[in-house]
């Protein structure tokens, strides 16, 4: 039996000051902060989740803010570029919006698609592409309406220390299909209508170094807990060193580092972000897992106060 992931579940990165992170992804890009919690492995650090109105798999970008930490280096063994999909016809809006906030951008063409490329305040490499596929994001904030709002991930560009081995992982383990080759890139596609396109750079570069401005890991979708356990066994049988299942409250996770040194996670679609607060209030309060609830007073006193605010 060969397994196939539907596509990207989420991408997690390391950034600097938490308010700057929220201002950019909510204030500039118009994403919804769907969950404000802590790093379950380091509760003194925030963990923010941004996505569409529900924070559906395929739309979720998550961050560990490390204010004052050292700058990382984007390179082999990492997600190099995170791609967002916007509705067809929305690109002119985004050019004007980036210019309004003095965010420099460039345009490039890859596999016949035009990409608007720019960086966030902490150095993460991002790009926008117009796509027909993917449902409309009904979340509106700060002048970003549903007609132009980011739908979720278009996909990602991976930088590998061993591109041929990463190709095997994507096809033989994750079940993606090679759909094109162009210049330095091989394009892979999964079955979902969002978070489904992966471009793998086939030439090696500098080795990445984890720190502010780099992606920590990319997570792939599992249907449910039963499918998740099947994925664990399946990946182990393919020669991957897979962790035990981790309870992340909003999904369950397993991790392995593929041969090209990119950290992969497989995460369950359910239960989602409305399990501990209502749809209307998601992201407004610091939510803690049961094991840290007794630390609430200490954590709320030590974490930097943040807010979601519209920007002029």
From TrEMBL:
Coiled-coil regions listed: none
SUPFAM superfamilies assigned to the protein according to its UniProt record, in alphabetical order: Glyoxalase/Bleomycin resistance protein/Dihydroxybiphenyl dioxygenase (SSF54593)
Keywords assigned by UniProt, alphabetized: Dioxygenase, Oxidoreductase
PROSITE patterns given in the database record: VOC (PS51819)
Presence of keyword Phosphoprotein: no
Domain VOC: 7-131, 152-269
GO molecular function terms noted in the UniProt entry: dioxygenase activity
Protein name: Ring-cleaving dioxygenase
Organism classification: Bacteria, Bacillati, Bacillota, Bacilli, Bacillales
């Amino acid at each position: 039996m060969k397994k196939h992931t539907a596509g990207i579940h989420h991408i997690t990165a390391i950034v600097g000051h938490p308010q700057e992170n929220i201002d950019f992804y909510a204030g500039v890009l118009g994403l919804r902060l769907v969950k404000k919690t802590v790093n379950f492995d380091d509760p003194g650090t925030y963990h923010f989740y941004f996505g569409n109105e529900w924070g559906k798999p395929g739309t979720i970008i998550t961050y560990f803010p490390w204010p004052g930490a050292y700058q990382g280096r984007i390179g082999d063994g990492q997600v190099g570029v995170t791609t967002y999909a916007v509705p067809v016809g929305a690109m002119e809006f985004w050019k004007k919006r980036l210019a309004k906030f003095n965010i420099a951008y460039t345009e490039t063409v890859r596999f016949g698609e035009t990409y608007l490329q720019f960086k966030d305040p902490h150095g993460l490499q991002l790009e926008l592409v117009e796509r027909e596929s993917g449902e409309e994001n009904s979340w509106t904030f700060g002048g970003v309406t549903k007609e132009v709002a980011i739908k979720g991930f278009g996909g990602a560009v991976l930088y590998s220390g061993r591109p041929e081995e990463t190709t095997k992982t994507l096809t033989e383990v994750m079940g993606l299909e090679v759909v094109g080759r162009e210049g330095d890139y091989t394009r892979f596609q999964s079955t979902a209508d969002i978070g489904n396109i992966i471009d793998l750079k086939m030439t090696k570069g500098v080795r990445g170094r984890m720190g502010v401005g780099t992606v920590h890991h990319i997570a792939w979708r599992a249907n449910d807990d039963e499918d998740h356990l099947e994925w664990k066994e399946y990946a182990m049988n393919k020669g991957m060193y897979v962790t035990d299942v981790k309870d992340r409250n909003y999904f369950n996770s397993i991790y392995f580092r593929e041969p090209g040194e990119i950290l992969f996670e497989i995460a369950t679609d359910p239960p989602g972000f409305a399990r501990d607060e209502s749809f209307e209030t998601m992201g407004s309060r610091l939510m803690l897992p049961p094991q840290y609830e007794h630390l609430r007073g200490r954590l709320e006193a030590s974490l930097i106060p943040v807010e979601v605010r519209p920007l002029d």
